[in-house]
């Protein structure tokens, strides 16, 4: 067993010691009563942006789907390819009936960098997937085409998050949940360089830093 895997196994032992103690087993309760998370969080696969670590969430508190660049595709017919992210959203909203949907974007997103530099993207899947956010790239190049790369990437990270929020509203069951039971749809941007959270104001289309 290599060192990286051994470290994970040691971590699992600590996990068992914390969550499977006889007198207070969270997983015993979750196993017997099922999951009832209040929040669906759509995040990036980036190893530095773990939703549970960032939020201090307990087991069973978040329903999480992660993909490259925390993208939400627009609603599409089920006969057109596979829909992992869409199916997770559907399950969370329709079956678990979550109260909140959060899209969590972040600084230094490799997927967004691939969006802004498509000629340097390798692999057959990433380039196709990241096209979901093409509108973000177009807007950044139109408004800040002469800016330095880091400025454009940061702007694109925020703009692609807006795209995902817009795409969420193309799902009829999301619209219905918002209308019938007041489900919240929230965009959050994590600046991992500065340790800051920024929230998208849906009405203004701008981000404001959260003071916590």
How would you portray this structure in words?
- The protein is an alpha/beta fold.
- It is globular.
- The chain has two domains: 34 residues, no CATH class; 175 residues, Beta-carbonic Anhydrase, Chain A (3-Layer(aba) Sandwich), CATH 3.40.1050.10.
- Strand 1, helix 3 and strand 2 form a beta-alpha-beta unit.
- Helix content is 45%, strand content 17%.
- The termini are far apart.
- A six-stranded mixed β-sheet has the order 2-1-3-4-5-6, covered by helices on one side.
What labels describe this entry?
alpha/beta, Beta-carbonic Anhydrase, Chain A, 2 domains, 45% helix, globular
Count of extended strands: 6
Q: Give the CA-CA distance, first to last residue.
A: 42 Å
Structural class: alpha/beta
User: How many domains in all?
Assistant: 2
In terms of topology, how is this protein built?
Blueprint: H1 3-19, H2 26-33, E1 39-44, H3 51-55, E2 62-67, H4 84-95, E3 100-106, H5 110-116, H6 126-130, H7 134-144, H8 149-168, H9 172-181, E4 184-191, E5 196-201, E6 206-209
Parallel strand pairs: 1-2, 1-3, 3-4
Antiparallel strand pairs: 4-5, 5-6
Helix pairs in contact: 7-8
Short description:
This protein is of the alpha/beta class. Helices cover 45% and strands 17% of the residues.
